[in-house]
Design brief:
Elements lengths: L1 E6 L3 H12 L4 E7 L2 H11 L3 E5 L7 H9 L10 E6 L5 H9 L3 E4 L4 H12 L8 H11 L6 H6 L5 H11 L4 H8 L3 H15 L4 H10 L14
Parallel strand pairs: 1-2, 1-3, 3-4, 4-5
Helix pairs in contact: 2-3, 3-4, 6-11, 8-10, 8-11, 9-10
């Protein structure tokens, strides 16, 4: 059973999301919160698997709440997955939230089936990278930022094959697509991905995408980048 917590300052949004999720088998909405601070407190108490987090809220915004849930000060033994919710498709808050460890984001006007799929995807430890909007968002903000020298140096810890797998992750390819592209088995791809995340100290594929762009391994709008 996937346990979900909804954090949004609009009661109608919370009600709508609750109605959609509660109607799905295998998903239980364990609580709601009207601001980021209440969301953090209820997450600590209710221990959900997935927190659906609004970006802009009073008291504590979604970015600060995400850092509180996923940062060094988080309670030992409980680290929920955070799925950001927003009405904006280009928002610096979201980029920073991805850096903080959020597993992806979804526009509030997405179809109900997209919402359900997103909850299931992040609950099972994957990152929500499928929508082109995620890559477009990352590209838009990384374009204006200098490359991270320290991050580029960290790439030296990777083998040539791992660097190529990381490049394909940053382009948004799934494990199946990476395996086909490199003519390797999918379990081998999964092993490469796990090693890359461990060596670079990254939480998930979303942070790997951000890392790939920030270090210059992938250029915004460059060859192979999927359309904006």
């Amino acid at each position: 059973m996937i346990r979900a917590l909804i954090v949004d300052d609009q009661s109608m949004i919370r009600m709508g999301i609750r109605a959609i999720l509660q109607a799905q088998p295998g998903i239980e909405v364990v609580g709601e919160a009207e601001d980021g601070q209440a969301g953090v407190e209820r997450s600590h108490r209710l221990r959900p698997d997935v927190v659906l987090m609004d970006v802009r809220m009073p008291v504590l915004d979604g970015l600060a709440a995400t850092r509180a849930l996923l940062g060094p000060e988080r309670p030992v033994g409980h680290t929920p997955r955070v799925l950001m919710l927003t009405t904006f498709d280009l928002d610096d808050y979201i980029y920073a939230a991805l850096q903080a460890g959020a597993s992806g984001f979804l526009l509030k006007d997405s179809e109900p089936e997209e919402l359900v799929r997103a909850v299931r995807v992040v609950a099972h430890g994957e990152a929500l990278l499928a929508p082109n909007i995620t890559r477009r968002l990352i590209e838009s903000f990384v374009e204006a930022r200098p490359h991270r020298p320290a991050g580029a140096t960290a790439l030296n810890a990777l083998t040539d094959r791992e660097r190529e797998v990381l490049r394909l992750i940053a382009l948004g390819l799934s494990n199946t697509e990476i395996a086909a592209s490199l003519f390797i088995a999918e379990p081998t791809t999964k092993t490469h991905v796990s090693r890359i995340l461990r060596k670079l100290g990254l939480r998930d594929r979303v942070q790997a995408v951000v890392f790939g762009y920030e270090t210059g391994l992938v250029s915004p709008g460059g060859p192979g980048s999927r359309g904006r």
